[in-house]
Specification:
heterodimer; A: 253 residues; alpha/beta; 6-stranded parallel beta sheet; globular; B: 278 residues; TIM Barrel; 8-stranded parallel beta sheet; 12 helices; binds zinc ion
């Protein structure tokens, strides 16, 4: 079973985490120690500075090791910083990028149909997943309200919320999973005892993507929790990496 | 996987290690306000314990954070049903001073373990939650309970968290100095103020760091081991909030020795609470 981390990063943010991973080598060392075979990776410059800078840094660093796959940040096409929608998709195709992140609070835009409609429609049609970090917007209610509106407008979008905190958020994300078949959450902070097993039973194993939230969170917690969750090996394999591999393989650029 | 030590190898392979039992020193019981729990009922608690080789679990009732009398009674019943696996903390709510006095009077009676005269009592000590009750740890409304515990050398598990004025290392230090016989467990290890909290545990033999939620901040454990030593750190999970495997996995990821991990997972709590590990 190969672990495919959907949520880890490296770089030099303005406020470093307690135990930083400043370079891609720091990240690779920890992936090796933990036994994680693949990772969808981003440089902190994407949200701390701008996707204009961070996307290129991420792609350059990820080219150094086949375990790493670069993910990019997006901005509203109207300001043209990343080109128009089709120029941006061309750049993704050229760089082999298949997954995107949005930081609407840090980058100060509205993640909705008005600002991002053209982009989100292409992402939905092309199967490109969009990741949101649960701590990016100030609160749980706001994050899920934004996510719900995006899914209401683009119900087939692969939207993934990662790194909800230690307060379980099942009451927030399970109703959305029930309504939107392509909505998923990351497991990095899914610490709830029996959560994985209970969610697999009620909503199926496709709604969870293994992730570590490294370097903020230790890799061992989400690994040991998934390895010994009371689910079948087929379900475990999907959460560990099968779901993410399938989503990325089905991306049409 | 996770790291290359024997403990990691065995936890990865089996989810439990026979010669490394776990004592969960910070657990709860029952449903609660802001979160859904699939595994709070007693039979599921015991199943989780078996899957991770949690030999003992020490719990307070969520209900007791709201209504101490009802919640503490609930835990007394669970301990009576599982005297060889579960112990309780007697929750103190300083917002109800008359009830508090009455409940301190009842504590001794409840403290007797059903049918096991030689092993530790049903309630090992008190649980304080300054943040949930809105009363700072150093507020004199806690004094009746602190004096009672100080006279008997009882453990108290308190929620502790960064930010002066409620339950931070500063309030813990003040209480520890005033009540030197209370064995004070800093729940969540003073979350956020890692080094200052570890130094309170270092400076006071009777102060311990408890790991619930703190383990999921990468780098925090290493700071605790450096400044307080692994002999002052206790394992806990807030069960049913968190899967013990999550906490154990984080401890396996931290840079420390397997001896440190055994101190944290069971040795320190075995000594502190006198709970047998046979
Ligand atoms: Zn607690």
């Amino acid at each position: 079973m190969e672990l495919f981390d959907c949520n880890c990063w490296y770089g030099v943010p303005k406020t470093p985490p307690l135990a930083p991973a400043e370079t891609v080598d720091d990240l690779l060392g920890e992936l090796g120690r933990a036994g994680i075979g693949r990772a969808l990776v981003r440089n902190a410059a994407i949200w701390e500075e701008s996707p204009e800078v961070g996307n290129a840094l991420t792609t350059a660093d990820c080219a150094r090791d086949e375990r790493l796959e670069a993910a990019w940040g997006i901005l509203p096409p109207h300001t043209g910083e990343l080109g128009d929608v089709h120029e941006f998709l061309d750049a993704m195709r050229a760089a082999g990028v298949r997954a995107l992140w949005a930081y609407p609070a840090k980058h100060r835009y509205l993640l909705n149909a008005t600002a991002m409609g053209g982009m989100l429609e292409e992402m939905q049609d092309r199967g490109i997943p969009l990741f949101l970090h649960r701590r990016e917007m100030p609160g749980a209610q706001e994050t899920y309200a934004v996510a719900e509106q995006v899914l209401a407008d683009f119900p087939r979008l692969h939207l993934v919320i990662v790194a909800h905190g230690s307060w379980g958020e099942d009451r927030l994300f399970r109703p959305m999973m029930a309504r939107y078949p392509s909505f998923a959450v990351g497991t990095s902070r899914y610490e709830l005892d029996g959560g994985i097993e209970d969610l697999c039973r009620t909503l199926g194993p496709e709604r969870l993507l293994f992730g570590t939230n490294f370097p903020e969170t230790p890799m061992g917690g989400p690994i040991l929790t998934l390895l010994h969750a009371a689910i079948s090996d087929e379900e475990r394999e999907l959460i560990a990496g099968g779901n993410l591999r399938r989503i990325l393989e089905e991306v049409r650029l | 996987m996770i790291n290359d030590t024997r403990l990691a190898e065995e936890f990865v392979a089996h989810g439990r290690v026979d010669d490394c039992p776990v004592i969960d020193t910070h657990a709860h019981f029952g449903p609660y306000q802001a979160i859904y729990f699939p595994r709070w009922r007693p039979e599921r608690v015991l199943d989780t314990m078996d899957r991770c080789n949690v030999r003992w679990l020490i719990m307070s009732a969520h209900a007791a954070l709201v209504d101490t009398a009802r919640g503490n009674r609930e835990v007394a019943e669970i301990v009576a049903a599982h005297p060889d696996r579960i112990r309780g903390y007697w929750v103190i709510n300083p917002n109800y001073p008359e009830r508090l006095q009455r409940e301190l009077d009842e504590f001794d009676a409840h403290a007797q373990t059903p049918g096991q005269a030689s092993s530790p009592p049903a309630f090992v000590g008190f649980k304080f939650h300054p943040n949930q009750h809105g009363v700072p740890l150093n507020d004199e409304r806690y004094h009746p309970a602190l004096e009672y515990a100080d006279a008997r050398g009882l453990p108290i598990l308190s929620h502790t968290w960064a930010g002066r004025g409620m339950s931070s290392h500063a309030e813990v230090r003040e209480v520890a100095e005033r009540f030197p016989n209370v064995r004070l467990l800093m729940g969540h290890a003073g979350y956020g103020d890692w080094e200052e909290s570890a130094k309170v545990a270092r400076d006071h033999e009777h102060v311990y760091l408890e790991l619930t939620a703190a383990y999921s901040v990468r780098g925090a454990l290493e700071i605790m081991v450096e400044h307080a030593g692994s002999e002052k750190i206790l394992f806990g999970t807030d069960h049913p909030w968190f899967d013990p495997h999550y906490g154990i996995g984080c401890i396996l990821s931290a840079y420390m020795t397997d001896e440190d991990r055994r101190n944290i997972l069971h040795r320190n709590a075995e000594r502190l609470f006198g709970l047998p590990l046979d």
